[in-house]
């Protein structure tokens, strides 16, 4: 078995952490039992480019239980948990190509190592696997039944590919499942981003001004949690509807140019490029802390920041101090990469349980139906979304009402009126 990890001796520690995460992933656990019996992925090779975390490990185990040959690489150089990678290789026999802190060349070499397995299904978090395949190995696309995409940034890239006629096989946007983005993006990102910022800085949020760039589901969750910690929250947006919603939710809304002068903490969650630029850095207070929780570090213009800085030093783990030409100091967390994964452990297992249940069920769906689908981006089938929600409620011991025949008839007809 080929693999490339940091240290196989970390496997036992990783195994225990995988077990710990699995205790809070009951939906995925139930799917594992089902997949072991039915083998819906038998004979298929799955190439996954995801954050190598304890939660991801539990998903990989389920896919293997379903009969698939699974190979995993990292979707971010700083999100890999090396003990988890070691355990997947040693304890579960799953090839992993991921080392925390790997450079760009190694990162893409690992992606190509996954592509070397000639996957039938691709599984992405950010679309780097699928974009590399399309750009460098287009001939392999005919071998692929379909793919899944985990995050907003990746879905944006894939929809652009589909719009340009470049997408060569169908992809299911797992990110857009209600049981994913309403919970993972909101509650997962909100809690884990605050966790990463606090682990990196040990600074007090209460009484501070916290600027959230972007008010999608991730931004909503982050703003909610920052306010819950006692911060005064400012939201910056380009979408008038989302900006209006932020105002109605009780947050201040203003352009980044104005917010830059007020904030003590800044965090981008937009999925776009150059959200905080050098002109914004130059307006910030001495000691401002800047982080990103969008998928790629491009949300912060770090090259522009270097241009207006006279000194850069590592002052704490995951904290770089930039001394600007005006003498003020700006602190960038986790090199501008996903702060919740680089400085903490990512989303709590309970929300990833639903996200990864969607991934597993969508893989099984593709195994059955991919040949019926055109090369475009699809939403998660509604019955999968509802099933995940029902399984989650059941695992929590929660029961809900069901429509009576009379109610069903009323909702599906027009004759009854008022």
Automatic annotation (TrEMBL):
GO cellular component: cytosol
Chain positions recorded as substrate binding sites: 53, 125, 150, 180, 184
Cofactor: NAD(+)
Cofactor note: Binds 1 NAD(+) per subunit.
One Pfam assignment: AdoHcyase
Pathway: Amino-acid biosynthesis; L-homocysteine biosynthesis; L-homocysteine from S-adenosyl-L-homocysteine: step 1/1
Reaction equation(s) it catalyzes: S-adenosyl-L-homocysteine + H2O = L-homocysteine + adenosine
Gene3D superfamilies for the chain: Adenosylhomocysteinase-like, NAD(P)-binding Rossmann-like Domain
Domain S-adenosyl-L-homocysteine hydrolase NAD binding span(s) in chain numbering: 185-346
UniProt binding sites for NAD(+): 151-153, 185, 214-221, 237, 293-295, 340, 347
A Gene Ontology BP annotation from the UniProt entry: one-carbon metabolic process
Keyword Cell division: no
UniProt superkingdom: Bacteria
EC number: 3.13.2.1
InterPro entries linked: Adenosylhomocyst_ase-like_sf, Adenosylhomocysteinase-like, Ado_hCys_hydrolase_NAD-bd, NAD(P)-bd_dom_sf, S-Ado-L-homoCys_hydrolase_CS
Cell location: Cytoplasm
Primary location recorded for the protein, binned into one broad class: cytoplasm
Keywords in alphabetical order: Cytoplasm, Hydrolase, NAD, One-carbon metabolism
UniProt-recorded Gene Ontology molecular function terms: adenosylhomocysteinase activity
Family: Belongs to the adenosylhomocysteinase family.
Role according to the record: May play a key role in the regulation of the intracellular concentration of adenosylhomocysteine.
Entry protein name: Adenosylhomocysteinase
């Amino acid at each position: 078995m080929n693999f490339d990890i940091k240290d196989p001796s970390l496997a036992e520690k990783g195994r225990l952490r995988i077990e710990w995460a699995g205790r809070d992933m009951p939906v995925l656990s139930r799917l594992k039992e089902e997949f072991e019996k039915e083998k819906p992925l038998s004979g298929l090779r799955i190439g996954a480019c995801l954050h190598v975390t304890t939660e991801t490990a539990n998903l990989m185990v389920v896919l293997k239980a379903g009969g698939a040959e699974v190979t995993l690489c990292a979707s971010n150089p700083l999100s890999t948990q090396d003990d988890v990678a070691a355990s997947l290789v040693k304890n579960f026999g799953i090839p992993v190509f991921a080392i925390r802190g790997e450079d760009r060349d190694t990162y893409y070499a690992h992606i190509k190592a996954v592509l070397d397995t000639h996957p039938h299904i691709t599984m992405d978090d950010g679309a780097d696997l699928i974009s590399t395949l399309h750009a460098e190995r287009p001939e392999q696309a005919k071998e692929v039944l379909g793919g899944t995409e985990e995050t907003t940034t990746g879905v944006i890239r894939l929809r652009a590919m589909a719009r340009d006629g470049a997408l060569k096989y169908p992809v299911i946007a797992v990110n857009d499942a209600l049981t994913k983005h309403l919970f993972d993006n909101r509650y997962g990102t909100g809690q884990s981003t605050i966790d990463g910022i606090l682990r990196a800085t040990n600074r007090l949020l209460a009484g501070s001004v916290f600027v959230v760039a972007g008010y999608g589901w991730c931004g909503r969750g982050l703003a909610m949690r920052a306010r819950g910690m006692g911060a005064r929250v400012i939201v910056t947006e380009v979408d008038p509807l989302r900006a209006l919603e932020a105002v109605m939710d009780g947050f201040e809304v203003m352009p980044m140019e104005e917010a830059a002068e007020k904030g003590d903490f800044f965090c981008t969650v937009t999925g776009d490029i150059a959200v905080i630029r050098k002109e914004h850095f130059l307006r910030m207070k001495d000691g401002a802390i800047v982080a990103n929780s969008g998928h790629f570090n491009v949300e912060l213009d770090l090259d522009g920041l270097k241009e207006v800085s006279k000194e850069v030093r590592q002052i704490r783990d995951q904290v770089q101090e930039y001394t600007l030409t005006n003498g003020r100091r700006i602190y960038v967390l986790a090199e501008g990469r996903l702060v919740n994964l680089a400085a903490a452990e990512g989303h709590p297992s309970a929300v990833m349980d639903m996200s990864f249940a969607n991934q597993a069920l969508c893989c099984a769906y593709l195994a059955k139906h991919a040949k019926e689908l055109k090369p475009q981006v699809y939403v998660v089938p509604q019955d999968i979304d509802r099933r995940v929600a029902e399984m989650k409620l059941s695992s929590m011991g929660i029961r809900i009402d069901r429509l009576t025949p009379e109610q069903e008839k009323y909702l599906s007809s027009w004759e009854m009126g008022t």
